[in-house]
Amino acid sequence: MYLRQGTFSHLPELTDAEIGAQVRYALLNNWPVSIEYTDDPHPRNVYWEMWGLPLFDLDEPDGVLAEIDACRATFPRHYIRVAAYDASYGRQTTALSFLVQRPADEPGFRLARTDSDDRRQHYALHAYATDTRPGERYGGRAP
């Protein structure tokens, strides 16, 4: 299964040069950039772990790319995304978010149906990866 999540979810994987171009675009728009990672990519899991602090006051994407590489080296079997925030509305608004790394093997999700009263049916997604403890998912051990 191929997880579709973020701004460029239906495009092929971005190269490092393309990631750098998107980071440059965010920085030119004065959007601070942050790097986040998780091993539970459920669509409702919007609170990923943050890699360091948001990167403010950068003019060039080289600093962001170095932090992405450090996060990749530390968490080689996790999902890693870059998020850029726009504060022009007076609140923190996500302007851009995209994946920069995914595990080699993505086990997918199961659709669970529950029947309730009056013929109502409720559906929920269950990630197969969450059957394993955090930090050990996708064939790895906790760092």
From TrEMBL:
Q: Which PANTHER family match?
A: RIBULOSE BISPHOSPHATE CARBOXYLASE SMALL CHAIN 1, CHLOROPLASTIC, RIBULOSE BISPHOSPHATE CARBOXYLASE SMALL SUBUNIT
State any GO BP term from the record: reductive pentose-phosphate cycle
What the record says about family reads: Belongs to the RuBisCO small chain family.
Q: Which organism is it from?
A: Nocardia terpenica
Name the Pfam families on file.
RuBisCO_small (PF00101)
What binding partners and quaternary form does the record give? Heterohexadecamer of 8 large and 8 small subunits.
Function summary: RuBisCO catalyzes two reactions: the carboxylation of D-ribulose 1,5-bisphosphate, the primary event in carbon dioxide fixation, as well as the oxidative fragmentation of the pentose substrate. Both reactions occur simultaneously and in competition at the same active site. Although the small subunit is not catalytic it is essential for maximal activity.
Asked whether the keyword Membrane is assigned, the reply is no
Asked if Zinc is a keyword of the record, the answer is no
SUPFAM superfamilies documented for this protein: RuBisCO, small subunit
Residues in Ribulose bisphosphate carboxylase small subunit domain copies: 4-103
The record makes one more remark, namely:
The basic functional RuBisCO is composed of a large chain homodimer in a 'head-to-tail' conformation. In form I RuBisCO this homodimer is arranged in a barrel-like tetramer with the small subunits forming a tetrameric 'cap' on each end of the 'barrel'.
Record-given protein name: Ribulose bisphosphate carboxylase small subunit
Molecular-function GO terms, alphabetical: ribulose-bisphosphate carboxylase activity
Q: Which domain of life is it from?
A: Bacteria
Q: Which UniProt keywords are given for this protein, alphabetically ordered?
A: Calvin cycle, Carbon dioxide fixation
